[in-house]
Amino acid sequence: MDEPTARNGFEIIEHETDLCVVGGGLSGLCAAVAAAREGIRVVLMQDRPVLGGNASSEIRMWVRGAKGRENRETGIISELEEENIYRNPELTYPVWDGVMWEKVAGEKNITLLLNCSCCGCSTTDGPDGHRIVSVTGWQLTTYTWHTVRAKFFADCSGDSVLAPVSGARWRAGREAGSEYGEAIGHAQADRKTMGMSCLIQARETDRPVKFIPPEWAYVYESDDDFNRAVAVADTGVPGTTSLNRPHRPGTDDTNYWWIELGGDRDSIRDTEEVRDELLRVAYGIWDHVKNRGDHGADNWELEWIGFLPGKRESRRYIGQYVMTENDIEAGGRFDDTVAFGGWPMDDHDPAGFRSFESEAPPSLLYPAPSPYGIPYRVLYGPDVANLFFAGRNVSVTHAALSSTRVMATCSLLGQALGTAAAMCVRENETPHGIYLHRIRELQDRLMDAGCFLPGFRRRIPQLSLGASLSLGRDDRELLFNGAERPDSAWTKNFVSLPVGGGITFDFGRPERLTELRIVFDPDFSRKSISPHKKMRLFAQRAMRGLDFCPVKVAATLVRTVDVEADGRTVFRTDSCHNSLLRVPLDLSASRLTVRFVSTWGAGEVRVFSCDVR
Ligand SMILES: Cc1cc2nc3c(=O)[nH]c(=O)nc-3n(C[C@H](O)[C@H](O)[C@H](O)COP(=O)(O)OP(=O)(O)OC[C@H]3O[C@@H](n4cnc5c(N)ncnc54)[C@H](O)[C@@H]3O)c2cc1C
After folding, report:
1. Fewest C-beta atoms under 10 Å: which of 104, 196, 405, 475?
2. What DSSP designation does 129 have?
3. Which ligand 1 atom sits closest to the C-alpha of 52?
4. Do 594 and 578 form a contact (C-beta atoms < 8 A)?
5. What residue's CA is closest to ligand 1, atom 5?
């Protein structure tokens, strides 16, 4: 029988692909791009007009990750951030949206379905177990149904939209401490979560600006009306309190994340009602900042308030392994590490903004080692044979989620998912089969793609190890030690060369060369991108004072690179602004010379890694 071409009178478009990613937040974006670069066909279904989820212009949260300047995330997320710094020195959201969009739109293996909300799923039971056959989404702009049949599916929707409809196990809320022996756990399990937020963005002008609040906004006459937390030390509760609702525009920490509600409601079903309440609070807070008390805000104008609440927590899958607070505290030393975290366990009170009524702080912070490893097994489960998940819905407890949820960490998880899914397609494996038979290959591929895995070192191609180099023994060792970032003691871990200097590989006879790979120093401390500490920390800013100064490409990155094979130029770029440069080659040569002709300002060239395969 022919497939129907319409449903309820609206056209159905059919897609056949290798991997269907649902959700285009940073985890889904990185999953799709990683898979496409590994050569498989991908459909990315995203229900919003822009990509990036909570990092997009619709929500405007800053991308954060592991603590510690030597622990910055690399891989696709740093490629995005480096592109943003290069193209968007003013750090505006519309340009950032474009940077994320073009990263996906430029991949020929990705079919991007924007404004397309996944709202259906068909499954089957066969010899390979319970599987998803297809998902269906409604595209708002074209009044069209899209049905995507795929070999593998990735739920990166944050809300685990595919969990209840595919038969995968999931849970929402906080575990009892006794379930996994977690100290942060509660006496009894409950359905409470961290809440959602509508953020505020404002900018300083050169003249006084009035704000007339809407009648429906709440009124906060004084700080005490919303800022009444008792110091945690006085309550006997373990953990330290997070910053206490800073709201003076222009200060480093003011980003209004604490306008948060809904943790004590159903974080999916009640979203619309919670949003209405959040708007009353957000406009009321801005009225407080402008009109009630001196907040140094006379010249500040409200640029934007988010009407789409950003969600912190809803459903989490129960996967092959459930990562807990204890795993984090033990440093996450997993044989199947495919990503890392390092944000503290940042457990928000479910009452959110209203926690002030019980004088509780909005969030408790429990230290986490940084970096800690995150295992591959949190990305798939035993119930649905062809389903992966990445982002804030991975298989972790509530306590562990309070750390793993930050977006740079979610991005690494997405990149791991996409790489694993491509291996599944190529090798005809299942997600669990990759764990059983090919985990080191997955780790090698991730490290080749620039990802850092704590406790692991990248393997250097044999061809490079066998070559004579135009470097001394110590430098050769640094170049080939498989480490591509500073260590925690910040000891020198790169080869220093003069600007204009280079490295020659002599293979002794003609060899077939397929790729040159170089890792430059991205200036993990970001000192050279901006004199202002606050500009260095974030990909974006919520508050823009008149003292804002544009950021710059890290001075340590190399701008002009020349590559010669047997004396013939085979590659040249004079706009390189990424720390990872992979140059595809398709040639035979006995000698290959890489010359570092200019930097973005530094007086030396720093190379963490340079090899040929
Ligand atoms: C207010 C707030 C403050 C935060 N502070 C920070 C911070 O400072 N730094 C930081 O790094 N992290 C922060 N976080 C956490 C972080 O933003 C999230 O944990 C992270 O965005 C999760 O990434 P994700 O890709 O899993 O989900 P999301 O970013 O939520 O992306 C999921 C995407 O899937 C789409 N989607 C959902 N359902 C469907 C469907 N049915 N069909 C198609 N698409 C769908 C959504 O539109 C969304 O774009 C904060 C979160 C909030 C809410």
Report:
1. 475
2. E
3. 49
4. no
5. 61
46 lines ligand 1 (CB under 6 A): yes
Q: Which atom of ligand 1 is nearest to the CA of 196?
A: 53
Q: Does the beta carbon of 407 lie inside 6 Å of ligand 1?
A: yes
Is any atom of ligand 1 closer than 6 Å to the C-beta of 34? no
> Between the CA atoms of 426, 432, 434 and 439, what dihedral angle is there, to the nearest 10 degrees?
160
Q: Is the dihedral of CA 266, 270, 275, 277 positive or negative?
A: negative
CA dihedral 200, 204, 205, 208 (to 10 degrees): 80
Strand pairing partners for 148? 15, 135
- Dump pLDDT digits (tens) for 211-235: 999 999 999 999 888 887 666 655 5
Q: Is 259 in the pocket of ligand 1 (CB under 6 A)?
A: no
Q: Ligand 1 mean position to 435 CA, how many Å?
A: 27
Q: Is the CB of 352 under 6 A from ligand 1?
A: no
Burial of 462 (0-12, 13-18, 19+ CB in 10 A): exposed
Tell me the pLDDT tens digit for each residue of 7-57: 889 999 999 999 999 999 999 999 999 999 999 999 999 999 999 999 999
Is the CB of residue 415 below 6 angstroms from any atom belonging to ligand 1? no
- Phi, psi (deg, nearest 5) at residue 262: 100, -5
Residue nearest to atom 13 of ligand 1 (CA): 406
Q: What is the side-by-side order of every strand in the sheet holding 310-311?
A: 260-261, 196-197, 310-311
**Which of 61, 153, 197 to probe ligand 1 with, by most ligand atoms within 8 A of CB?**
61
Distance in Å, CA 532 to ligand 1 centroid: 27
From ligand 1's centre to the CA of 300, what distance in Å?
A: 28
How many Å apart are CA 301 and CA 545, to the nearest integer? 11
**Residue 238: what pLDDT?**
66
Q: Is residue 496 helix, strand or coil?
A: strand
Identify the sign of the CA torsion 430, 436, 441, 444: positive
Cβ 560 vs Cβ 520: under 8 Å: no
To which residue do tokens 């990683």 refer? 34
d(CA 440, CA 323): 20
Q: Is the CB of 48 under 6 A from ligand 1?
A: yes
- What is the C-alpha to C-alpha distance for residues 90 and 95, in angstroms, rounded to an integer? 9
Q: What is the pLDDT of residues 348-359, one digit of tens each?
A: 999 999 998 887
157 — phi, psi (to 5°)?
-85, 0
SS3 readout for 179-231:
HHCCCCCECCCECCCCCEECCEEEEECCCCCCCCCCCCCCCCCCHHHCCCCCC
| Nearest protein CA to atom 48 of ligand 1, as residue | 53
Residue 414's closest CA among 444, 383, 389?
A: 389
| DSSP bridge partners of 468 | 506
What are the distances in angstroms from CA 7 to CA 1, 3, 121, 136? 16, 11, 15, 11
Is the Cβ atom of 47 under 6 angstroms away from ligand 1?
yes
User: Checking DSSP bridges between strand 42-45 and strand 110-113, what pairing results, if any?
Assistant: parallel
Encoded tokens for 390: 């990445």
| Residue 477 CB partners (closer than 8 Å, separation 6+) | none
**pTM of this structure:** 0.97
pLDDT tens figures, 1-17: 456 788 889 999 999 99
Question: Among 122, 104, 93, 123, which residue's Cα sits nearest to residue 201?
Answer: 93
